[in-house]
Amino acid sequence: MKALLHLNKYFYKYHNHLIIGIIITIIARLFLLYTPRYIKEIFTIIETYFAGDITKTVFKNELIEAILYIIGAALIGAILTFFMRQTIINVSRYIEYDLKNEIYNHYQKLSLSFYKQNRTGDLMNRITEDVSRVRMYAGPAIMYSINTLTLIVMVVFYMYNASPKLTLYTLFPLPVLSIIIYKLSKEIHNRSTVVQEYLSKLSTFTQESFSGISVIKAYGIETQTSKNFKDLALESKDKQISLAKMQAWFFPMMILLIGSSNLLVIYIGGMQYINGEIKSIGTIAEFLMYVNLLTWPVATVGWVTSIVQQAEASQKRINEFLNIEPEIKNQSETETKIDGDITFNNVSFTYNDTNIQAIKNVSFTVKQGETLSILGKTGSGKSTILDLIGRLYDVNEGEITINNKKLNELNLYSLRDNIGYVPQDAFLFSDSIKNNISFGKIDATENDVIQAAKNAHVHKNIIKFKNGYNTVLGERGITLSGGQKQRVSIARAIIKSPKILLFDDCLSAVDTETEEKILKNLSQISKGKTSIIVSHRVSSAKNADKIIVLDNGKIVQEGTHESLINVNGYYKDLYLKQLSESPKP
Ligand SMILES: Nc1ncnc2c1ncn2[C@@H]1O[C@H](COP(=O)(O)OP(=O)(O)OP(=O)(O)O)[C@@H](O)[C@H]1O
């Protein structure tokens, strides 16, 4: 139960609802218990009438009165039961909502290494499946526990008053029922977890096959993938059947145990009636109703125990993530004014998960309004430099400053708000092109979006689509070419007119002619801003105020295009190679 203590803050938040719910539950049960007592009353009236102790009119009137009481009590009981669910189950929905938001917001604060170490499916499961299990504890488990407790106390009290001996015998099978239901629920849970695993395996397999359908078709391996799917589906079917077998035991067990309780009531009650220990046959009818009223609540004890255990396990998994402290912390609450002087002072950085030292003792300065180009072989640390500027990771050694202030002392949100970042693999959401671009600036007007698209040289492509800027991208929409994606991603970064622009090899998929045009536009837009362009092409780097060349995390060359083409090294080699490859006029 330790993990579930996390929910206490929510129970406190909704304590008014909960208290009202508990009171309603108790009152509803009180009304429910009227029925058996009036059933006994009816039997007594009938017995008295047949004994000739009352007239037909009195008999009729008393019978109608008892029936009306039963109907009235049942009606009030039903209305209160409705409100009981409305209060307690609603509280569990509020808690589910709050918990999902808490987890989601926490996920957002966690650093990229967290996402590297944990699979997306696992993150999703904890916010959906696990939260649902926890909700079962926060709502149904609490509601049924109060229900059962109230009912047991009241029913046993009434039963004991009517016949202590009969009470003992009839209650005897109920704990057995509870234990059996507990064992069954546990086994059902275990088997349904396996079924769930197979369902997600099946959906992952299907999703991957259809996302990669072009590869499957190109290699002609449809038969093999169909066979793999069939094998998986077969295993999944077997697990489903094994679950269904276990579930099939549930109601027969209940019926068996209720049946034995009923038999005991009739047998022992009947004997007591014959011996004169029970005055009215109505007592047996009353007991039969009590036993049936108790059966479900007692069965729920077993069910609730297994729900609580599952919720505990789920909340433990949720807490595991909630207890992870974000590696990147905002150290300054007040907004910081960000300008564009960026300095790296002997910066070194090692990725925790791979232990790869991506940056080694790197130092450089870019002044506000300047453009820096970073070149280097693949894996030399170019993207890492951009990630460090956006504080997606914190440096291990040395320091990065912006306007002479240490990066980690700046307000994190101000910093990121002033950065326009175009990642290497442009990620676009399954939304309209317009929304994908204005994502960078929530209050962007239509004109802002169009202007950004023009500057990124993608406007002409967009207006050719039937729905123009409202064209939906992604799975259910249009697929953009690699170059178009990159340019939409550039539009998204420049629309917010940030102080710092970071372009991570984002022109790799466009032809050199388009690259030239985009770079020309960018040099206009980025006037007064600091731009860092990571590239594999000299054409993207040549106009920069400063160029650095990285090799294995170290700066191996530094200078301008003119200076670097005149010294032997990586830059000159690349320049000559790309010069010979470029189309001759
Ligand atoms: N998130 C990460 N976790 C662990 N190691 C990483 C991570 N990202 C990059 N690396 C490693 O750090 C080194 C530098 O990678 P980086 O992506 O900065 O290189 P790059 O110069 O941008 O490469 P490319 O030109 O291929 O994009 C590589 O060896 C890479 O394997």
Automatic annotation (TrEMBL):
<keyword id="KW-0067">ATP-binding</keyword>
<dbReference type="GO" id="GO:0015421">
    <property type="term" value="F:ABC-type oligopeptide transporter activity"/>
</dbReference>
<dbReference type="InterPro" id="IPR003439">
    <property type="entry name" value="ABC_transporter-like_ATP-bd"/>
</dbReference>
<keyword id="KW-0472">Membrane</keyword>
<dbReference type="Pfam" id="PF00664">
    <property type="entry name" value="ABC_membrane"/>
</dbReference>
<feature type="domain" description="ABC transporter">
    <location>
        <begin position="342"/>
        <end position="577"/>
    </location>
</feature>
<dbReference type="GO" id="GO:0016887">
    <property type="term" value="F:ATP hydrolysis activity"/>
</dbReference>
<keyword id="KW-0547">Nucleotide-binding</keyword>
<keyword id="KW-0812">Transmembrane</keyword>
<feature type="transmembrane region" description="Helical">
    <location>
        <begin position="12"/>
        <end position="34"/>
    </location>
</feature>
<dbReference type="InterPro" id="IPR017871">
    <property type="entry name" value="ABC_transporter-like_CS"/>
</dbReference>
<dbReference type="Pfam" id="PF00005">
    <property type="entry name" value="ABC_tran"/>
</dbReference>
<keyword id="KW-0813">Transport</keyword>
<feature type="transmembrane region" description="Helical">
    <location>
        <begin position="166"/>
        <end position="184"/>
    </location>
</feature>
<feature type="transmembrane region" description="Helical">
    <location>
        <begin position="288"/>
        <end position="308"/>
    </location>
</feature>
<feature type="transmembrane region" description="Helical">
    <location>
        <begin position="141"/>
        <end position="160"/>
    </location>
</feature>
<dbReference type="GO" id="GO:0005886">
    <property type="term" value="C:plasma membrane"/>
</dbReference>
<protein>
    <submittedName>
        <fullName>ABC transporter ATP-binding protein/permease</fullName>
    </submittedName>
</protein>
<dbReference type="InterPro" id="IPR039421">
    <property type="entry name" value="Type_1_exporter"/>
</dbReference>
<dbReference type="GO" id="GO:0005524">
    <property type="term" value="F:ATP binding"/>
</dbReference>
<dbReference type="InterPro" id="IPR003593">
    <property type="entry name" value="AAA+_ATPase"/>
</dbReference>
<dbReference type="InterPro" id="IPR036640">
    <property type="entry name" value="ABC1_TM_sf"/>
</dbReference>
<dbReference type="InterPro" id="IPR027417">
    <property type="entry name" value="P-loop_NTPase"/>
</dbReference>
<feature type="transmembrane region" description="Helical">
    <location>
        <begin position="66"/>
        <end position="84"/>
    </location>
</feature>
<keyword id="KW-1133">Transmembrane helix</keyword>
<dbReference type="InterPro" id="IPR011527">
    <property type="entry name" value="ABC1_TM_dom"/>
</dbReference>
<feature type="domain" description="ABC transmembrane type-1">
    <location>
        <begin position="19"/>
        <end position="310"/>
    </location>
</feature>
<keyword id="KW-1003">Cell membrane</keyword>
<feature type="transmembrane region" description="Helical">
    <location>
        <begin position="249"/>
        <end position="268"/>
    </location>
</feature>
